[in-house]
Design a protein that fits this description.
- The protein folds into 2 domains: about 45 residues, no CATH class; about 100 residues, AhpD-like, CATH 1.20.1290.
- It is built from 9 helices and no strands.
- The protein is globular, with a radius of gyration of 16 Å.
Length: about 180
């Protein structure tokens, strides 16, 4: 089935304000938003949860590490490209971005704990061990961080799954960071 990638001119009325907000914020309408606009409920939920995650108690670097780790686990070609561009805009060190795109451990032990926890929580659908929680706490993270990673997973499930179902084309502005999971066969 083919999903429509809506524009400002074709968007359903219920999604128009959300689409206009995307246009204003990004200076273009990302294809993901154009696809999601078909369902005002999904589009609003996605944007709302994303805004909430933006208020998480983690640094911008830590938030992008979490999002990229989740995108990697969910094998989302679109979100890996988009968040790679966003991570660069937020000055993520290139070696961290490369490791995240490769699914490789990070050199910084604290950040690696965050990455590996977000990846495992995603991969195991929430079934982590007491040792995983202890590792997070030992690294200096809190229960709040763990809960905010769960918010991030909810946020990314909406976009990752939509991109899988719709086979959302990567926008021209993200093409420089086009991605395929290295170990995907």
């Amino acid at each position: 089935m083919v999903f429509t990638t809506h524009t400002i001119d074709t968007v359903p009325d219920e999604s128009k304000a959300l689409m206009e907000d995307s246009q204003k914020r990004f200076q273009f309408v990302p294809n993901l938003h154009g696809v999601m606009a078909e369902s005002p409920i999904l589009f609003e939920a996605y944007k709302t949860v994303g805004a909430l995650f933006g208020k998480a108690g983690m640094s911008a670097l830590e938030r992008q590490i979490v999002l990229l780790a989740i995108n990697f686990e969910n094998q989302c070609h679109y979100c890996m490209a988009a968040h790679s561009v966003i991570a660069q805009m937020e000055q993520m060190p290139p070696e961290i971005l490369t490791a995240l795109r490769d699914g490789a451990p990070l050199a910084d032990a604290k950040l690696e704990t965050l990455r590996s926890f977000a990846a495992k929580l995603t991969r195991s659908r929430g079934w982590v061990d007491e040792s995983d929680l202890k590792a997070m706490h030992d690294a200096g993270y809190t229960n709040r961080t763990i809960q905010e990673i769960i918010v991030a997973i909810g946020f990314k499930v909406m976009s990752n799954y939509m991109n899988h179902v719709a086979e959302t084309p990567v926008d021209a502005g993200f093409q420089g960071q086009a991605w395929t999971r290295p170990d995907a066969a």
